[in-house]
Write a structure and sequence with these properties.
The protein is built from five helices and nine strands. By secondary structure, it is an alpha+beta fold. The chain has one domain: Hypothetical Protein Pfu-838710-001, CATH 2.40.320.
Length: 181
């Protein structure tokens, strides 16, 4: 499985950050787009701090296995994903295999790229916008923070459920849905 080197800078100004990304020569991969996703769990997955996620993205529909080895580290998440053709049929397939649905979620994402560094500006229901910077190494993630004059020392690491717990005290894995109003 691929290690995801990623870190978040919280409470950002989306418009200012988009302008800054243009100024540093980053390329807009896609404009702000709504993503929907369904997470699935089982006892075995939970015991390994893992879950399945199917997500409708800008470029397709992807089924991913996510593992949180260390929720407090830039390299704490691992992911393996495949493209699928049908969101609803894949969800039904996972249910037939015995996986239980967790939260059905939506978010807004705007994606930028520069020098193999990915800059995702995310907006989730109830949370202030943040940027997630992902690259092939911790040094490249730090470079992404420096490009935008963001403080890596204040970065947040970990999956979105950890961010909801930190910011709002909510366990989104217990919610049936997490949508914008």
């Amino acid at each position: 499985m691929k290690i995801e080197y990623e870190a978040k800078s919280l409470n950002i100004n989306k418009n200012k950050l988009s302008t800054n990304l243009k100024q540093i020569g980053a390329k807009l991969v896609f404009p702000e787009t709504k993503f929907v996703r369904q997470t699935f769990i089982s006892k075995e997955l939970k015991s390994q701090n893992a879950w399945l996620r199917i997500q409708k993205e800008y470029s397709g529909i992807f089924l991913a296995l996510k593992v949180a080895n260390d929720k407090c580290s830039v390299s704490g998440l691992q992911e393996m994903s495949i493209e699928v053709k049908d969101f609803d049929k894949t969800c039904k397939f996972l249910e037939v295999l015995g996986y239980q649905k967790e939260c059905f979620e939506e978010k807004l994402r705007e994606k930028w790229s520069k020098d193999n560094i990915i800059f995702d500006i995310d907006t989730w229901p109830g949370l202030a916008p943040f940027i997630e910077i992902e690259a092939d190494s911790e040094n490249e993630v730090i470079k992404g923070f420096k490009h935008l004059d963001l403080e890596y020392e204040k970065a947040f690491f970990g999956p979105i459920d950890s961010l909801y717990k930190k910011e709002l005290g909510i366990d989104i894995t217990k919610l049936k849905k997490n949508f914008f109003a």
